[in-house]
Write a structure and sequence with these properties.
The chain is mostly beta strands. It is built from one helix and four strands.
């Protein structure tokens, strides 16, 4: 059985616009990173994905959940396969970034 995972992470983004057109008016949220941000937008929370044993266990939420990150460690932990490559490993002790939320 395959457990669902987070997908569609977008690294090194200047900004992202999330639009929800359920009616004639479309609420729009624009997120601008400073300097850059990484994001994932989904109709599932991280907990939804964690507790689901298979994709058939998931029911999309009406809302869009946006996750913003300053950085993301590459895949792999060395526990049962290769570790993350040096180029994709996080080495700084502290990360920070800024963002602006703008409704349009």
């Amino acid at each position: 059985m395959r457990q669902p995972i987070e997908i569609r992470r977008k690294p090194d983004s200047v900004s992202v616009t999330i639009e929800r057109c359920a009616q004639a008016k479309c609420p729009v949220l624009h997120i601008a990173g400073s300097p850059l941000l990484e994001f994932n937008a989904s109709h599932y929370t991280a907990e939804d994905l964690y507790v689901a044993k298979h994709t058939t266990d998931l029911a999309p939420r009406a809302e869009t959940i946006a996750y913003l990150d300053a950085a993301h460690r590459g895949l792999g932990s060395g526990s049962c396969g290769p570790d993350t490559t040096d180029a994709n490993n996080l080495t700084a002790k502290r990360y920070s970034f800024g963002y602006s939320l703008i409704t349009l």
